[in-house]
Amino acid sequence: MTDILVLSQALCGLNDGIQMRPFLPPRPKSVIQMNNSSFAKSTLDIGISDEEWERLQKALDWPGPDQQITQLDLSTNPVHSTFSIVELKKSYKVGDSISIVITARDHNKNLKTYGGDFFQAKLFNSKLKASLYGEVVDHRNGTYSFVLLLPWEGQAQVFVRLEHSSEVVQILKKYRESSFPRSHYNGHFEGPGTKNTRISEVVECNLKWGAERSLRKGKCCCEYKDIKTGTEWQCERPKKLSCDKLVGHSMGRFESPLNRFENKLFSK
């Protein structure tokens, strides 16, 4: 039976971002023996060939802006971006597919010249409560394409959503790979005071991590290590109690790593 598909178009966005070099994990090195133990693995040790490793890195690579972004209006705008169905027909058969092309534009209505935007595309029918998503292909020149299978009989709608602009994606990558502490915790200390009293102190704590495995230097802090997991913690040193008086911890404050310009890009 021939299906009559009415394809309506909608494009909306959530958040619209900083020049960053693409992050490419280093290739596993050859095994180096030292005292009968190895501290590096080769591609053979993890069960993949050099060709497969290169393919994985290519698949994980996410393009970004080809220039430093200093103006908010240069980020992708979902209102001015459009998509079109290639060679739209009046009717299709179940099992057919349709091709869609997305054209990204900035807030000045100019065509984007690089990729990296995070688009999601789906076909749906609200009455049937049916939907499916398509894989969006980034052509790295401001255009994107995807193919949707038509699996049911009746009407269907195409919906494209800009989840994040390429500029915002670069910010997310930047802080994902950084050691900036986003969550902070409270360390609770208790111990004896004078004249049979008890002293309680609450200080800020966090995981000890980062490039040098330390958030703060010197004698400012108490350090703790979980014997089972090897996780290291660091707490500010209490004013009255010693480091061995830690009795527990609780959730503290959240801290955003975004600067003023990055905050504006997220809300643009």
TrEMBL record:
Alphabetical list of PANTHER family matching this protein: NEUREXOPHILIN AND PC-ESTERASE DOMAIN FAMILY, MEMBER 5, NXPE FAMILY MEMBER
Family matches, as InterPro entries: Ig-like_fold, Ig_E-set, NXPH/NXPE
Organism: Sinocyclocheilus anshuiensis
Name this protein carries in UniProt: NXPE family member 3-like
GO biological process, one term: nervous system development
Alphabetized Gene3D superfamilies for the sequence: Immunoglobulins
Tree of life domain: Eukaryota
Pfam families, A to Z: Neurexophilin
